[in-house]
Design a protein that fits this description.
Structural class: alpha/beta
Largest sheet: 8 strands, mixed
Radius of gyration: 21 Å
CATH architecture of the largest domain: 3-Layer(aba) Sandwich
Shape: globular
Distance between the termini: 44 Å
Strand order of the largest sheet: 4-3-2-5-1-6-7-8
CATH class of the largest domain: Alpha Beta
CATH topology of the largest domain: UDP-N-acetylmuramoyl-L-alanine:D-glutamate ligase
Number of domains: 2
Length: 436
Amino acid sequence: MFVTYQEALDWIHARLRLGIKPGLKRMEWMMDKLRSPENKLKAIHIGGTNGKGSTVTFLRSMLQEQGYKVGTFTSPYIEQFNERISINGKAISDDELLQLANVIRPLADELEETELGGPTEFEVITAMSFYYFAEMNPVDIVLYEVGLGGRFDSTNIIKPIASIITNIGLDHTNILGDTYEKIAFEKAGIIKKQTPIFTAVQHPGALKVINEQANQKDAHIYRFGQEFTISGHEPVSNGEIFSLKNSFGSLEQLEISLIGKHQTENAAVAITAIQFLNQTGTLSISEQSIREGLKNAYWPGRFEIVSEKPLVIIDGAHNDEGIATLVSELKNRYSDRNIHIVFAALKDKKFDKMIEQLDQVANQISFVSFDYPRAATAHDLYEKSQSENKEIVENWRAYLKDVIQQLEPNGMLVVTGSLYFISEAKPILINHLINI
């Protein structure tokens, strides 16, 4: 039995040694022992390559604005581990996490002795979340973000009221497949029988796979560009404005505070899902709550402006599609700025194309590594860059302070790459900014 929060957290993190073990049998075994808490939840399931966290945030903010008690399960964390299990945007307490660890630990030990083997870190956290939202602190509705893929993801034992697939990109190809179609098949694994599916996927091959899976499951599908569309998009200084049209009507001049055209698509998917659930009587959310919820939605680490003067942005762009979106926004919004990029990545990512794109907009690019088992070395990243103004940085913490202090009025700092790196870098950046 764990006595302190730190003991519990160390035990959870130690399970990273088990790596990724796709499959649902260990989850089903643990849930059976806990009397199936996952079946007591009213849940929306959110999958996709990029945009999952932002879509969860839009959903939560709209639901919360209406007065619902909303649970969220997301990964990875940006500021604090506990935020992976949250209610109304507030992370569970250290004491609650300690209690949960003491509930799951005996099951993990027992499971270790079976032919299934012990649960991974992600499986442990997922099991904790099911028990928490169903038994310890029941919620009106819970939003589950897929960890990896969909079909064999630990979260895929739920029976949701709706499923969402944000988009499809070539990420985790060593596990999910090396084509859009193969990855789409894995993502489409969250589609359940006669359960509506909402998607922003636009790649023709990927969308074809999702259509096929929806038809097989007799699941009504709502597709971006077909059943719902966006018009009148306009970027503004602190977000985006757009209008949405779907089979439930039109909403004009919607405003979001998350930056990037892609965020309007994530918002459109979330709104359409909410409107469907409104129509079926599953939920009741007013137009005012939709509008206010969208405007108030905040998701850390996604093109987040952490300082205006000096201009400092962090963005967890950790794959080709994420970097492409970041580069596009930098070109559209800050083409007149001197852009200094600090980049870190995981070694199992195809970071050569990511760096090639960053080279296009960076006046200076610095490569770093960080304390994580899968982190790429700064040297490996440096070798892939064609920039004439590139460097390897050993002590990135001290370096960030120096860069911030030396930024000229027309300069800006962009810290990007792995979300695991962003979670380490953000508090360091904020501390430096407070003290300059």
